[in-house]
Amino acid sequence: MEPVPTPLSAPGGPAADLGELLTQVAAGDQDAFGAVYDRVAGPVHGLVRSVLRDPAQSEEVTQEVLVEVWRRAASYAPERGTAMAWIMTLAHRRAVDRVRSAQAASDREHRAALLDHTPAYDEVTEQVEASLEREQVRRCMGGLTERQRQSVTLAYYRGLTYREVAEVLSLPLGTVKTRLRDGLIRLRDCLGVTA
Questions:
Q1: What is the pLDDT of residues 47-57, one digit of tens each?
Q2: Contact call for residues 141 and 152 (beta carbons, < 8 A)
Q3: What is the DSSP string of 129-174?
Q4: pTM of the model
Q5: DSSP state, 74?
Q6: Helix crossing, 173-191 with 121-142: angle to 10°?
Q7: Any residues with CB less than 8 A from the CB of 94 and at least 6 apart, and which?
């Protein structure tokens, strides 16, 4: 009988153990890496494609995984699992990292777009202050007598002259001026304005 060759006699042989091939790859054996490549490229690409879905990115990540297998072959520990499980773990991690990286980039772009549409701090501050001032003026206007409020509203909110206010209210010009003066003094005091 002829002696049967051992499974490791030919690095790319069909019976070669993947773990032993990785040991040879760790020693720099390019033929052993070729055998590893031939055996795992398909399954690695399939796993990566199932995670990424994008054909071009899947091919790129598959190549990155196989380069990582070449560089990190010495870190494979047979006692922790099979060589195929180790390689597929590398592939899965690399694919998930790519997905997370793409998501992080998308999130950054989204936040940047939101910042472009957010009013500047000064605009927001001015709007808030104007709103608070309007509310305070409304409150203070509520503290005026009805006649003072009518006179101030016509003169300052509708832009009428003293004479036009007098005509609208059918009052003498002097009475309108007195009501406006008294109303403005009360508004000034209510608003805390110093002369």
A1: 999 999 889 99
A2: yes
A3: HHHHHHHHHHHHHHTS-HHHHHHHIIIIIS---HHHHHHHHT--HH
A4: 0.52
A5: G
A6: 130
A7: 48, 61, 64, 65, 68
Q: Using only C-alpha atoms, what is the Rg of the chain?
A: 41
Both tokens of residue 65? 């995984």
How far apart CA 183 and CA 148 sit, in angstroms, is 5
Class of residue 121 by CB neighbours under 10 A (exposed 0-12, middle 13-18, buried 19+): exposed
Amino acid at the residue 24 = Q
The gap between the terminal CA atoms of the chain, to the nearest Å, is: 120
What's the half-sphere exposure (Cβ side, CA atoms, 13 Å) at 43? 13
Q: If you average pLDDT over every residue of the chain, what do you get?
A: 85
- Phi and psi, residue 8, nearest 5°: -95, 5
